[in-house]
Amino acid sequence: MLFNIRQETLPREDLEALQLRRLQDLCARVYANVPFYRKRFEESGITPADIKSLDNLKLLPFTEKQDLRNYYPFGLFAVPRDNIVRLHASSGTTGKAVVVGYTQRDLETWAEVAARSLAAAGVNHTDTVHVAYGYGLFTGGLGAHGGAEHLGATVVPASGGSTRRQAYLLRDFGATALCCTPSYALHLWEAGQEAGIDFRDLPLRTGVFGAEPWTEEMRQDIEQKMGINAMNIYGLSEVMGPGVAMECLDAKCGMHLWEDHFLPEIIDPVTGEVLPAGETGELVITTLTKEGIPLIRYRTRDITSLDYTPCRCGRTHVRLTRIKGRSDDMLIIRGVNVFPQQIESILMESEGLTPNYQLVVDRVHNLDTLEIQVEVDEALFADEIRKLQSLEGRIQKTIKEFLGVSTKVRLMEPHSLERSEGKAKRIIDKRLEK
Ligand code: DLL
To answer: Which is nearest to 218 in space by CA: 379, 342, 102?
Structure first.
């Protein structure tokens, strides 16, 4: 179901006209209120009046995470502190936190796009939505919460942690939708198994999963184990939080990015050149309506592509293809570029392996090494050692064939790798400690 039929089905021409008006307003606002952006305009030799088409956006430089860090905490805010009603922050894996401030209207916009997103996944006001994204400075919990409330659904604000208790809550409250990271969904499922709860017997029918990269193979695994539709939701704190883009149940193919609020571009991550529609590169987003901390051409570091072909659901907003990785998560193993998700896809094709895996990168005698630790399921674990060893060899061979990199595959006992309550930690790079 569409939450906001008019906006979600705007013909492209109207959508672009709206984007241009909003872009011009945005440029005027940041020029007047944010010294950082005024300087950027001046250095580029232009004023907001020079932005006459969407294409003119190219005249402005990118904004990067480092810029937000340099102006920590509030230096890029575009409204007086009095107008900020909420702060969130993302720590990321390295460096100083990035702080985002929301005005009342920003929170309303966020609730709107998050509600649209849940509706696209097939959730409506009759649903009970169990939110197991963390509540706090992380945007996941409160973002999904705001969307579900705006939709008129019943929200269970479970947050992360107490996993077995959450499995009981899911059963007892009869949640029909679950919002959390895909890795935490599997963790919840395992806790349910241990407590004798089969998710397939519960009323649960929709998963709204995101905040970390995952693959089509992992989707199939989750759907089969839990008996639900596992839907992909995208977002990032700097731009808003969950609900920047969302898959629709009708096509389950690419995430509609709400273009009346966010203007996407795809660039070559090395040269910064804007790539033609359909090509894969780094996603760059301009926030068209945000008031607290608007961003012009923000480099997300997420690798994806834009699909402008019409979608069967009737929504006209462009679709982001599944995130292939982050340009800063890409591993370079002896010169070969490898994304963790490529390895995940290969692992998930082997029967008996679980989606619980970790990549350990090291440097031994000046050579990069990559060890893939992956848990096997109980059935395979009970098999003979010989069989397990031959499976390790087969996976190593497949990875070498498809990705061109030599690895060491280590099959691990079920439940031996650490579980995360939020984003899974897939990479341990020991080279960084040396
Ligand atoms: O993870 C916001 C969010 C919360 C999105 C809940 C979806 C659901 P950050 O902590 O700032 O914000 O992390 C943003 O997470 O740049 C991507 O690299 C990654 N990410 C988010 N959603 C997806 C997804 C939240 N569906 C970073 N697929 C982003 C792959 C994703 N990666």
So the answer is: 342
pLDDT by residue for the chain (434 residues), tens digit each? 899 999 999 999 999 999 999 999 999 999 999 999 999 999 999 999 999 999 999 999 999 999 999 999 999 999 999 999 999 998 755 567 899 999 999 999 999 999 999 999 999 999 999 999 999 999 999 999 999 999 999 999 999 999 999 999 999 999 999 999 999 999 999 999 999 999 999 999 999 999 999 999 999 999 999 999 999 999 999 999 999 999 999 999 999 999 999 999 999 999 999 999 999 999 999 999 999 999 999 999 999 999 999 999 999 999 999 999 888 888 888 888 888 999 999 999 999 999 999 999 999 888 899 999 999 999 999 988 999 999 999 999 999 999 999 999 999 999 999 998 999 999 998 988 77
Which ranges of 125-181 would DSSP assign to H, the alpha helix?
139-151, 163-173
* pTM across the whole model: 0.93
- Domain 331-433's class? alpha beta
CATH class label, 1-328: alpha beta
- Whether 134 lines ligand 1, by a CB cut-off of 6 Å, is no
Residue nearest to atom 4 of ligand 1 (CA): 140
| Alpha-carbon gap, residue 321 to 317, rounded angstroms | 13
Q: Is 232 in the pocket of ligand 1 (CB under 6 A)?
A: yes
Cβ neighbours of residue 70 under 8 Å, at least 6 residues apart? none
Domain(s) labelled CATH 3.40.50.12780 in the chain stretch across 1-328
Residue ranges, comma separated, of all CATH 3.30.300.30 domains in the chain are 331-433
Q: How far apart are CA 210 and CA 232, in angstroms?
A: 6
Of 117, 110, 170, 98, nearest to 143 by C-alpha is 110
- Ligand 1 center from residue 235 Cα (angstroms): 5
From the alpha carbon of 245, which atom of ligand 1 is closest? 26
